[in-house]
Every structure is written in structure tokens, then in C-alpha cells.
Design goal:
TIM Barrel; two-stranded parallel sheet; two-stranded parallel ribbon
Amino acid sequence: METLARARLYAILDLGYVEPSRAEDAARALLEGGADVLQLRGKKQSISKLRALAEKLHHLTSAAGADYIGFGPLFATPTKPDYQPIGTGDIRRVHELVQLPIFCIGGIKRRNLGAVLNSGASRVVIVSDLLQSADIAIATRETKALLSNLN
């Protein structure tokens, strides 16, 4: 996390812009160019293809490694209307495969948080539901309490 605290440039290796066959070269170039954080994003790729590619790219980042994984979008979200939601079915499986912190993201609201948590999530990203609450602090506090009760 110390490395993350010093980071200034967060680069996203988005497979919507780079063919998977060119991903390793693109990642190497981003890192050689000075990117501090590198995120692999493949919104239209299967989990198995992303996992295989991530394993292939891992050697480029063995000194720092990964700090976390963003997993989603779980549900439809107005910020990404063209992306197909992946649902909650694979949350538990991803936790079995990966030892990093996993933040579930995409369309998560307090009203569906129970389903997300029951599917195995322990970390979530919530945007609109908190920011559009009548009292943002109370909504955030209530959500945090639900998450804190997991352990």
C-alpha cells in the first residue's frame, strides 16, 4: 500500500482499446513509460480469459504485485450503460482463486447489498446510492456498519 500512496499515474490496460494479443506489449510500454498503477480491464472478456491474461502479465509487475481487484459490474449501472452486468454468481469463486482484496462494483445499492454480501462479497464500491441519499453521512455509516458486521 505504500507504493499506492505514492502513485501519481493510474493507467488502465483496457481490452476495448488493445487486442488481448497485444496486451503484454502494451502493459510493458505503460510500465516502462512510468505508470505507477496498472489496471487490467476487459469488460467484454470472460473471467477465465481475464485470469489467463492476468497470469501472463503478472511477471511484469512481480516487484509490486497487485493491491486489489475491482470485480464487476455486478448490476446495470447508468455510468456504464453499454456494459453487460455479470451478476453475483462468481463472487465466491473469485475469492477462492485470488488472495487479494476484491471490491465488487457496479450498480450496488443498499437495497441489493444483502444479495451481494450473501454471494460472498466482503468489500463493495457504492456510488450513486450514497451520493444521492438525503443524508450522505448516515447512509454511509449504515452501509459501513453492515460491512463491518461481516467479520
